[in-house]
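[agent] plan:
  1. take the single chain provided in the ticket
  2. run structure prediction with default settings
  3. attach structure tokens to the ticket
  4. add a short note for the reviewer (M.T.)
[agent] executing step 1
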Amino acid sequence: MLKVLLISGSPKAEGNTAQLISECAKVIQEQGLETEIVSFSEMKIESCTACGKCTELGVCSLEDGLNDIVKKLRGAQGFIVGAPVYFGTARGDVMAALQRIGYVSRMTDRFLSGKVGGAIAVARRGGQTFTLQEMLMFFLINDMIVPGSTYWNMVFGRLPGEVWQDKEGIDTIRHFAGNVANLVKKLFGPEIAATPNAQA
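[agent] step 2 finished; step 3 output follows
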């Protein structure tokens, strides 16, 4: 079955980022796709050390749970990452994870190539556009396909739940999630259906 993996890059399990990622998953499920959410609220992601061991191991040499994400991502056709804005940029754990995932992909079989996805940024007042640009560098250099929306994928909110007051932002990320689902189906639907063990 076609699948989209979503990451909530916030340390808060029920924070605004987590709520938005859950909303994206809901939209994607309504399109008939499977979803799985990974939350960084219970993880501590280390930074890439550029050791190069992933070239020979096929996985990252650091053992902090990232390889579980890599395994899930290998089996997914879509990938959405949400991050809160810290001092005008994406939270450090998010970029550390993306850099390591990208490194493993580029040093092995380039499993990210052709996958569909994009980023979502959440902030109280500012920094979302730069954060989106920062995260999108990961998607673009890894030969991934990023659909657009009716505006940039940014939502305003500080305290948990405040994002729902930003109607335009919510509508934007819902539209984006729908575009991800539709593009995944168009690109991978026939391919998945043609595999011997594909589920109807």
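[agent] step 4 note for reviewer: Helices lie at 16-30, 54-57, 66-74, 92-107, 128-141, 167-194.
[agent] ticket updated
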